[in-house]
Amino acid sequence: MLGIDPDPQALWPAASRAGARAASSQQRAALATRAHCLALIDAAGCCCVAAKFQLACFERLGVAGAQVLIELLRYATEAGLLVIIDGKRGDIDISAAAYGQALFAGFQTPFGWVDGMHADAATVNPYIGRDGLVPLREAARAASGGLFVLVRTSNRDAGQLQDLCTVESSGTTRAGLAAPPAGSRARAVWERVAEIVAELGAGCLGGSGLSDVGAVLGATVPAHLRRARELMPASIFLMPGIGAQGGRIEDLAPAFEPGRAGGLITASRSIAEAHRHAGGEPGDAARSEAERLRTIAWSLAD
Amino acid sequence: MLGIDPDPQALWPAASRAGARAASSQQRAALATRAHCLALIDAAGCCCVAAKFQLACFERLGVAGAQVLIELLRYATEAGLLVIIDGKRGDIDISAAAYGQALFAGFQTPFGWVDGMHADAATVNPYIGRDGLVPLREAARAASGGLFVLVRTSNRDAGQLQDLCTVESSGTTRAGLAAPPAGSRARAVWERVAEIVAELGAGCLGGSGLSDVGAVLGATVPAHLRRARELMPASIFLMPGIGAQGGRIEDLAPAFEPGRAGGLITASRSIAEAHRHAGGEPGDAARSEAERLRTIAWSLAD
Question: Which A-chain residues 102-131 have CB contacts (< 8 A) with chain B?
Answer without folding.
Answer: 102, 106-107, 109-116, 125-131
